[in-house]
Amino acid sequence: KVKEQGKNSFLFYTPEMDVVSLERLTLEHEMRNALLNNEYELYYQPQVEMNTERIIGMEALIRWNHPHKGRIPPGEFIPLAEESGFIVTLGEWVLEQACIQNKRWQDAGLPPIPVSVNLSVRQFEQKNLMEVVQEVLRRTGLPPQYLELEITETMTLDVDRASKVLSQLKQMGVSISIDDFGTGYSSLHYLKNFPIHRLKIDRSFVRDLEHDPNDAAIVSAIIALGHTMNIHVIAEGVENTGQLRFLQEHACDEIQGYYFSPPIPVPEIEMMLQDQLVS
Ligand code: C2E
Ligand code: MG
Ligand code: MG
Ligand code: MG
């Protein structure tokens, strides 16, 4: 017997399957409890302006500090959270925490810098997404221009509804970026139909751009396309000076990657923001 599971994985019923589903059930249960037990934490990765090397943004990235298993990276639980629908609750928590933190920094006199929050397709499918965002901004007091929502092209969206929702968010003052740009089926479709402020070049194109002429061509074309459309372009996964130099020569606006900083916990990014205040 074959059972279709999600997009592209077929599970065969075997004795091990009971173990697998039990593990999944356990993880799912733990994931929900973790919210009540305060086991989630947001890390922040700085986004740096190419020419000035100043921090002009930061991406909030969730971490799970599991009491027994240690820190679980999002790649290991976000997909399950998406399948089970728990991401809707978790995503709202992320949004609220990111807004609370950003507001707190601004109130403390640190330089006001927008925060980017990843939005799951499951959140996007919620009819009340607009209201949720509006309500979180109201509760936290964060001005909307300090919030950017990252959407990915793997989201198969109802174009009419999506462009309506995204336009409403834009009207509210919230920015929209396309994450992992170039990896989905509908990159150009998104650009054509949605009000996009920023493109994030996926790190799979950045990794080998010094050695792979295809990657180099794709990256320079994305930058040119963005600029023609008046959209900022940021490169993800920048790890070394060779990649940096290429991106600089091709006038990429911003970079995010280990070269400048990995995602870091609150006290560490606070120190970076402090430094920026005095320099
Ligand atoms: P993403 O949104 O594309 O985030 C960027 C990922 O690339 C992060 O992985 C970051 O740590 C990693 N990265 C940044 N610079 C470099 C680099 O120079 N080299 C390498 N090798 N990696 C780099 P992370 O934190 O493990 O997150 C993975 C993915 O999990 C994210 O990809 C995002 O899709 C998802 N995710 C994380 N937090 C959330 C969240 O709060 N909500 C939702 N829906 N998804 C999230
Ligand atoms: Mg992202
Ligand atoms: Mg990305
Ligand atoms: Mg992603």
From TrEMBL:
Domain EAL: residue ranges: 24-277
UniProt-recorded name of the protein: GGDEF domain-containing protein
Species of the source: Paenibacillus agilis
Entire protein: shown range: 265 to 543 of 543
